[in-house]
Amino acid sequence: MLPKVIPLNPKSTVFVANVEGVSLAKPLTSETVEALLSALDKFAVLVFPNQVLTDEQHIRFSRYFGDLELATGDYMKQDDRRLQMELNDISNLDRTGGKMGAVDPKRLFSLGNMLWHSDSSFKAIPAQYSILSAKIIPATEGDTEFADMRAAWNALDENTQQKCLGQVTRHSQLYSRGELGFTEFREDQQEAMIPVRQALVRRHPRTKNISLYLSAHAGIIERWTVPESRIFLKRLTEHATQREFTYRHQWKVNDLVIWDNQATMHRAMGYDNKEVRDMRRTTIAGVTSSLEEMPA
């Protein structure tokens, strides 16, 4: 039996659905995987409640969607990690399981996740999907917001669309963290964060839908001045994150959420750092450059 995909609000254009009738802890049939991919094509964000997974089961499920990125794009050295390299540690915990201090550089770096972004847009081949599992959540706050970049593109006026088409941006974590005033990078980290080129508008490789490709990691538009670039990117981000294009997910323990980075942006919401938040994310590696997906 195939999983049941239930739109969050079937009377609206919302891009989120709940998925029931499937245990992600067990091996999946090819028919089930294809049904989930088709649902992602339609909705872009899928919520799977009550999925109790080990890290190994989380990783095994993720591999159905493609090769995994290794968590080399964060601030931590490999020896400082508490999780295996296939998992991004979206928590306020150090390698011993204790809470990070309020001014721990690793925590301050992670605050960049509270800016609207697309995962791994700072890589030349950006990510396809992200799969986030909630292990421990704060009593309040700590939600995640998502924005539908397809709907945002469709709602732009024609003049702005024409201004966007053919534009190439440059993305780096130096830009997103710099926006927060965080500049504590070693020389080797700065060398690993050289800006990469991305399309401002992309066509989805599976659905062929067109969407804006924005992220806090985007710092400049090629052939534009830096101030003009950032004003225009800010304007587009403000447009794309209006209420009619967004969904706010209130986490429950053992929720698992998949989203399509090729069609959405997201951001974490704040929470009290005195509470533990333990979230673990796999990231499905991309296969093509966004530059190859620019509409003709």
Q: For the largest sheet, list the strands in their spatial order.
A: 1-2-3-13-5-15-4
Poorly predicted residue ranges: none
Strand content: 15-25%
By CATH, the superfamily comes out as: Clavaminate synthase-like
Order of SSEs, N→C?
EEHEHEHEEHHEHHEEEEHEEEE
Fraction in helix:
10-25%
Count the helices. How many?
A: 8
At the fold tier of CATH, the topology name is: Double-stranded beta-helix
Rg on CA atoms, Å: 18 Å
Mean pLDDT: 95
Per CATH, the architecture is 4-Layer Sandwich
Euclidean distance between termini CA atoms: 40 Å
Shape: globular
Number of strands: 15
Query: How many structural domains in the coordinates?
Result: 1
Indicate the structural class. Answer: alpha+beta
Would you state the CATH class?
Answer: Alpha Beta
- Which sheet architecture does the biggest sheet show? 7 strands, mixed
What does this structure look like?
The protein has about 300 residues and is an alpha+beta fold. The protein is built from 8 helices and 15 strands. It is globular and about 50 Å long.
Brief summary:
Helices cover 24% and strands 23% of the residues. It is an alpha+beta fold and 296 residues long. The strands form four sheets. The chain has a seven-stranded mixed β-sheet, with helices on one face.
